Amino acid sequence: MRSRWEITFIICVVLIAAVLAGCGAAEQRPALEKIEYTNLNDSGSRELLQELLSDAGVSDGRIQGFFRRVDHFNDIVKQEWLTDGFEEAELLYTKYDPYTMQDEWTAKNGTFPGYNCRITAMSLFGDFISVSADSQINSGEDVLFVDEETLKTDPSALGGSSLADFRALYSSMKAKNTTEIPRHVQTVQEEWASRGVTFQENERIRLITVFFHDKPTEEESLLFVGHVGVLLTAEDGTLYFVEKVAFQEPYRLLRFANRTALSDYLMGKYDTSWGQDTATPFIMENDKLMDGWRPNPDSGSSTLG
């Protein structure tokens, strides 16, 4: 008969093994191979997104403005380049050639750049962030210079948010010369706080921001918003991600089972560098590192810290 101490020891060993097995299972979860998405070119997906946005508290004015821009884009490009409702595809597959689509856009819009991920996300999410009135981020040689060309032509594209708020949220940030993600996350949080950027808590709608690390010179180290979209949670827990792929590429609504699948989609697109002395891209959900975020296992990403 075993002693009480031996029984306690065995129970502890079993519990520790279970925890380690659970962690290992999460680490070994296979990367996402296919996505399910729509370009919002059909009534069913449009009605779904309108209901999701409305249920999350997005104003009707912002919703209608968003769909006007979706219609403008979808009416310009060839319909065979767009989905017919939700479709399944390989992670990086597109039904169009981006250069041909860009030519199509330019032929009909001239020098007007169009709308990108940052403008689109702000137009939908703007009521859920606040920026202090004394925040002063000036325009300049920054990743936002093309965005601002669009906003000079169409200030209404922000859905009622101000250019000052846009700059406070998206302007690049000076960063430490490190590949450690926790340190960069801290930099983002501290910089947003210094700019007076705060997020309203709402479980139905979240801002998903992909930050990139860059070293334009030996002395400089910067973080900038490389991509951003809006995450919506349906009543049944299904996740939907709204994005504008690029200035002259389509709008998308994607459906995911969990945040790790969303991470795999975004990191599969943007975590593609090998052997560089910069940090891997990382994903913020509002002002925190997104649960389920993980680097692209095929990228040879740098140390996470």
From TrEMBL:
Domain DUF4300: 36-290
Pfam families per UniProt: DUF4300
PROSITE patterns (UniProt xref): PROKAR_LIPOPROTEIN
Top-level division of the source organism's lineage: Bacteria
Name of the protein: Membrane protein
Organism: Butyricicoccus faecihominis
